[in-house]
Amino acid sequence: MFTGIVAAIGKITAISPLGDQTAGHRLTVDAGGLSLADVALGDSITLNGACMTVVVKTDRTFEVDVSRESLNCTAGLDTIGEVNLEKAVTLSERLGGHLVSGHVDGLGSVQKFESVGESWLLVVNAPRELAKFIAVKGSIVINGVSLTVNTVADGANACEFSVNLIPHTVQVTTLKHLKTGSRVNLEIDLIARYVERMLSTAATVAKK
Q1: Are residues 190 and 110 in the same domain?
Q2: Which CATH number covers residue 153?
Q3: How far apart are CA 150 and CA 153, in angstroms?
Q4: Phi/psi of residue 194, each to 5°?
Q5: pLDDT score for 208
Q6: Which listed residue, 36, 154, 155, 178, has the most CB atoms within 10 A of its CB?
């Protein structure tokens, strides 16, 4: 489990294919300011919100294997560049953001990213099937960052929502690099996922 509070900005420095074009990649990641002293092989670290397993580690770098399925369902894990990093939480840590599983639920598309006063407005189009999980003042993860939804507008083919970014968040995450058209990894609120499942199951049982 994670919190959506980015611990450091790392950088994918190398990409090696694991096989043919149907296979995934092995990524080498410079951990940046993220300490790897307490990281062991098999531990989990999120890259832009996607939970990955450490398979090789040095003092300053680590490697993860990304399956073709994960590559097809995420953004930012197939190119050299910066990524948001967070290690899995322990029960002794503060839950600064919200409960995050590190499982990307869909890809969003940035519609607007602009400064408004001292903050930044980020508007994203989410897949229509995620609309029921996105609520005003609810939580959502964008590229591994826990954020609060400010507005929601449902459309025929997409759900548009906005979040406000304080200067600190822009400074310490890769969200600063977003622009119109950028694809972003989205994870819905964990509790909302289970509530929807319980309600849909109850409705199905009631019809029988």
Answers
A1: yes
A2: 2.40.30.20
A3: 11
A4: -75, -35
A5: 66
A6: 178
- The residue type of 175 is L
The whole-model pTM stands at 0.93
Please report the pLDDT score of residue 51 as a whole number: 98
| Dihedral (Cα; 62, 64, 70, 72), 10-degree rounding | 80
173 assigned to some structural domain: yes
Do 78 and 117 lie in one domain? The reply is no
- Beta strand segments in the chain, E: 8-17, 25-30, 44-47, 50-57, 61-66, 81-87, 106-116, 119-127, 139-142, 145-154, 158-165, 183-187
The per-residue pLDDT for 178 is: 98
Residue 181 falls inside a structural domain: yes
Residue 205, pLDDT score = 65
Whether 114 contacts 121, CB under 8 Å: yes
β-strand partners of 163? 122, 149
Q: How far is CA 155 from CA 135, 142, 158, in A?
A: 14, 20, 5
Residue 203 has a pLDDT of 67
pLDDT for res 122? 98
pLDDT for the residue 41: 97
Domain that holds residue 65: 8-87
Report residues of the chain scoring pLDDT below 50.
none
Nearest to residue 158, comparing CAs of 139, 176, 134? 134
